[in-house]
From TrEMBL:
<protein>
    <recommendedName>
        <fullName>SRR1-like domain-containing protein</fullName>
    </recommendedName>
</protein>
<dbReference type="Pfam" id="PF07985">
    <property type="entry name" value="SRR1"/>
</dbReference>
<feature type="compositionally biased region" description="Low complexity">
    <location>
        <begin position="226"/>
        <end position="235"/>
    </location>
</feature>
<dbReference type="InterPro" id="IPR012942">
    <property type="entry name" value="SRR1-like"/>
</dbReference>
<feature type="compositionally biased region" description="Basic and acidic residues">
    <location>
        <begin position="240"/>
        <end position="250"/>
    </location>
</feature>
<feature type="region of interest" description="Disordered">
    <location>
        <begin position="215"/>
        <end position="258"/>
    </location>
</feature>
<feature type="domain" description="SRR1-like">
    <location>
        <begin position="26"/>
        <end position="148"/>
    </location>
</feature>
Length: 258
């Protein structure tokens, strides 16, 4: 008989469904050698929502890495990059077995055999990070032609016009457009299960508008849809970039978290 104060999380349907959604992600992921976490944020922050976000997102990243390791029976190297990291963040990450690198060091570890986790990477950083590679698993803002990727393209076009006076789109901008289309066309995408927020987070929704990206297979497995929905979730993702990013906080210095 269970003790009066025993926490029986394994018997609660919402937790079971969330675990099933994580297991689906792991089962659908090809072999991973390295896991890269971008733009995790600050561990010590005056905004409790920001501090909480780092803790929960770090935990989610490590849990997925552990599940992948169990599936593969191999050790996965974990890499972390964020220019705002200071000794407190580096200490926590080192305790968790991770390695902190400086930009652009993470790119060396982002390959077709990588898991890339970037829930708070802002759109202007995408051309120099996410779309340059085609990882085995990417979780973060939804990458599609148009949408949020229009932000870095517009910013770079404006910069080009002011610097050179040329109105024609330069080859670097066309390359970003081509890389974005190639990335978007190469992946199946579905929304990350946000059940976790309602169960565990106190100050915000730290996993909303996050999309899971798996490389498309030659023969789609239509009978293996993610729990609770189709393999490609309907509707566009929120194009608003999350401010706590690889480029640092934006605006008036707020936390940058929704």
């Amino acid at each position: 008989m269970a003790r009066k104060n025993e926490i029986l999380t394994h018997t609660q349907p919402d937790r079971q469904e969330f675990r099933a959604s994580l297991q689906y992600i792991v089962d659908k992921t090809d072999h991973v050698d390295t896991a890269v976490c971008l733009a995790l944020g600050k561990f010590e922050n005056v905004e409790l929502s920001a501090e909480e976000a780092l803790q929960h997102q770090l935990a989610m990243f490590l849990v997925l890495c552990e599940m992948l390791e169990i599936k593969q029976n191999t050790k996965i190297k974990t890499i972390f990059q964020d220019p705002r990291f200071e000794p407190p963040e580096e200490y926590v990450i080192t305790l968790a077995g991770g390695e902190v690198v400086k930009h652009p060091g993470a790119l060396e570890h982002m390959t077709e055999n990588s898991f890339v986790f970037a829930p708070y990477l802002v759109w202007p950083a995408f051309p120099d990070t996410i779309i340059k590679t085609h990882p085995a698993l990417y979780i973060g803002n939804k990458v599609e032609s148009g949408g949020g990727m229009g932000i870095p393209i517009a910013e770079r076009y404006v910069r080009q016009f002011y610097v050179t006076g040329k109105r024609e789109m330069g080859p670097d901008l066309q390359e970003i457009i081509d890389q974005t289309k190639k990335f978007a066309d190469s992946y199946d995408k579905y929304l990350f299960d946000t059940t976790y927020d309602s169960l565990h987070t106190k100050y915000g929704s730290h996993f909303q508008n996050m999309w899971v990206h798996h490389p498309k297979r030659e023969r789609p497995d239509s009978d293996n849809d993610p729990p609770g929905g189709a393999s490609v979730a309907p509707g566009p993702s929120n194009p608003k970039p999350k401010d706590d990013s690889d480029h640092g906080p934006k605006g008036d210095g707020g936390s940058g978290f929704d």
